[in-house]
TrEMBL record:
Family: Belongs to the FAD-binding monooxygenase family.
GO molecular function, one term: monooxygenase activity
The keyword Hydrolase appears for this protein: no
EC number of this enzyme: 1.14.13.-
UniProt source species: Saccharothrix hoggarensis
Domain of life from the UniProt record: Bacteria
Keywords: FAD, Flavoprotein, Monooxygenase, Oxidoreductase
PANTHER family in alphabetical order: MONOOXYGENASE, PUTATIVE (AFU_ORTHOLOGUE AFUA_8G02570)-RELATED (PTHR43872:SF1)
Keyword set includes Flavoprotein: yes
Protein name, as recorded: Flavin-containing monooxygenase
Lineage, top ranks: Bacteria, Bacillati, Actinomycetota, Actinomycetes, Pseudonocardiales
Cofactor dependency: FAD
Amino acid sequence: MTTPEHLDVVIVGAGLSGVGAAYRLREECPGKSVAILEARDALGGTWDLFRYPGIRSDSDMFTLGYPFKPWREAKSIADGPSILAYIRATAEEFGIDRLIRYRTKVVAADFDTAAARWTLTLSRRDESGAVTESTLTCDFLYSCAGYYDYDQGHDPVFPGVESFRGEVVRPQFWPDDLDYAGKRVVVIGSGATAVTLVPSMADTAAHVTMLQRSPTWIGVVPGRDKLADKVRELLPPNAAHRLIRTKNILFGLAFYQFCRRWPKAARKVLTGLSTKVLGDADAVREHFTPTYDPWDQRLCAIPDADLFRAVKAGRASVVTDHVDAFTPDGVRLASGRVLPADVVVTATGLRLLALGGIAPSVDGRPVVLSEQFIWRGAMITGLPNFAVCVGYTNASWTLRADLTSRLVCRVVNHMDRHGYASVVATPDRELARRPLLDLASGYIQRAIDAFPRQGDRGPWRVRQNYVLDAVSTLRGDLSRQLVGTRRAAVRRSDGVGRVRTAADG
């Protein structure tokens, strides 16, 4: 019987988070064997998968980028290809690209309590497409696969869509050969994807209409950060990056707190800015003033007011109504109006998928995630030696992702110092159950019940505050909620049928 390969730490996912996690582990846990398992053929995650026109970040790159790799490009709000190039350059510079095993999907993960290790069942696909199954063991498993289902988006059923003579496109699976030049385009949706697509497609389409059921809060942000440009002229790259990053973190946190504490004032500020740029108070009232308060759902950012400029120039328009049915030549609305279309883009959102679709088990028994709590936004009760990377909803994903990776390094080193073979997060008192992601957005509400819960206090509460999280994550006591099992109590197979304790050597 062949002994499976064993690694100290396995990272699932070679996107923005996975590359950052590997860097932290190599720097802060030297000597540990690390591999990144990536189901796709390339690194980059979201930024390699999504190819629709205009794809970009909705966070500034000084905070979305890595703290250890200064962002040097001109744009603060960057396009997808630039972000992908940045991730690739980071992986190559620090040798992380050599840790990635492509076309390797984790289909099952079981933790053996007696041996204190994970056994991963892997589906490997070679370049010809042939699939083989294998196993791999590791001491610690770190999921950096995000929480979106990249194989399937939210795809509502529209009556009559089969009668439509034009082309229906989903942003998640954008066809490379789509030609929309000179054509009438309807984009169904009002979230970040829609507000990105509309101005980008409007440059070449005959006209683009954004059809939304209800408005979304939109914030106008500069595509370039002039203050950042000045700072980068005066200071060395690393110092400039730290200063700009700190400035943007504090501004983002302050604006979020302003919106949550004084929603009426925030509504006034946002509608005022939109009216100033669009120049039409009635249009802002009808199409860009939601019924919910700012940051009840994630705020959409439009760099340099590109959406508003496209609308103001007449190249795009916004309609707030419901789809009644598709017709052969367009989309009929609940009001009876018909929007003529040659191309319809269904930007109706993504689906959430916990742990990238991995259903973990312990000693062969499935762990029901919805019955578990999450500690410091990373480790899950009932799952020893396991962490998940979940970014902020009110700020750049990477801010929390990097904190989580540093926490994982602290936990791994804590285990070594104390002679632990395994640790599991365990609350010391009863917790009230709250949703992991506390946003009213439809894509979250549709699937959040399948995720672990956050608690109502202390390290079991998932805060949306980077400053507080940085202090507690990097300096907090790990012993209070992490229950450890010492190596001397662990039994491991030596690969030839004999079971030994760790104390045997």
